[in-house]
């Protein structure tokens, strides 16, 4: 598959899955976010984590606010991504801290101490779509694929999303596309093969 073919294949998946996710009723989406949060918090990897990189949801993504609130209430150091140039930095965040609006629509920490990627135990890894092998199609910026190699090899990458985001077919992936280890939906926890 050429680079152009890969980009076209990912765009087609992105368009199809976003259309399905956008069609979810807001009340149903809120209920799904609570179920995903409960399943996520019950994972042994999360229960053992001291530092978790989450993300601020936007658009039709399931809200990550309940997840961030619960992690902070447990005393976990929560970091949120901040785009600086073409790279992601992680900054400490507690519910109520000031935020700014990123160019793509998510909230970023306005300040907060920088977090070294090597201390992160779990990365909540966003995507438009996941498959059962842990492949993901993101929004097309490549930020996480550039960031994740900066974490420790044992850092656990967990994808979260609505059930419509877990597709049945193998997703298109290039050599630099990094997989998640676990996927959490309202209906299931999928442990992806190594």
Explain how this protein is built.
- The protein has about 190 residues and is an alpha/beta fold.
- It has a single domain (about 5-80, about 115-190), classed as Rossmann fold.
- It has five helices and eleven strands; from the N terminus they run H-H-H-E-H-E-E-E-E-E-E-E-H-E-E-E.
- The chain has a seven-stranded mixed sheet with strand order 3-2-1-6-9-10-11.
- Helix 2 (about 25-40) packs parallel to helix 4.
- It is globular.
- The model has no long low-confidence stretch (mean pLDDT about 95).
Give a concise summary:
The chain is α/β, with parallel strands linked by helices. It contains 5 helices and 11 strands. It has helices spanning 3-22, 26-42, 44-47, 65-73, 143-147, and strands spanning 51-53, 77-84, 87-92, 99-101, 107-109, 122-124, 129-130, 136-137, 156-160, 182-184, 189-191.
Keywords:
two-stranded antiparallel ribbon, 7-stranded mixed beta sheet, 194 residues, 5 helices, globular, Rossmann fold, alpha/beta, single chain
Q: Give the count of helical stretches.
A: 5
Low-confidence stretches: none
Instruction: Kindly identify the CATH topology.
Output: Rossmann fold
For the sheet with most strands, the description reads: 7 strands, mixed
Give the CA-CA distance, first to last residue.
Answer: 23 Å
**Order of neighbouring strands in the sheet with most strands:** 3-2-1-6-9-10-11
Total E-strand runs: 11
Summed up, the domain count is: 1
- Return Rg in Å: 16 Å
Structural class: alpha/beta
Helix and strand succession? HHHEHEEEEEEEHEEE
Shape: globular
- What is the name of the CATH architecture? 3-Layer(aba) Sandwich
What is the C-level CATH assignment?
A: Alpha Beta
Helix content estimate: 25-40%
Determine the strand fraction and express it as a percent band. Answer: 15-25%
CATH superfamily: NagB/RpiA/CoA transferase-like
Mean pLDDT: 95
């Amino acid at each position: 598959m050429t680079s152009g073919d890969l980009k076209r294949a990912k765009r087609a998946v992105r368009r199809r899955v976003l259309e399905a996710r956008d069609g979810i009723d807001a009340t149903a989406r809120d209920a799904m976010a609570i179920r995903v949060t409960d399943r996520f918090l019950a994972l042994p990897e999360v229960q053992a984590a001291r530092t978790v990189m989450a993300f601020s949801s936007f658009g039709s993504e399931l809200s990550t606010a309940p997840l961030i609130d619960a992690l902070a209430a447990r005393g976990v150091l929560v970091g949120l991504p901040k785009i600086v140039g073409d790279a992601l930095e992680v900054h400490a965040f507690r519910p109520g801290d000031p935020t700014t609006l990123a160019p793509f629509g998510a909230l970023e920490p306005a300040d907060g101490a920088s977090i070294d990627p090597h201390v992160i135990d779990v990365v909540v890894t966003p995507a438009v779509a996941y498959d059962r092998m842990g492949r993901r199609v993101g929004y097309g910026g490549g930020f996480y694929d550039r960031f994740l190699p900066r974490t420790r090899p044992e850092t656990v990458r967990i994808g979260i999303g609505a059930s419509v985001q877990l597709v049945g077919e193998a997703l298109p992936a290039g050599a630099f596309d990094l997989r998640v280890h676990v996927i959490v939906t309202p209906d299931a926890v999928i442990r992806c093969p190594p």
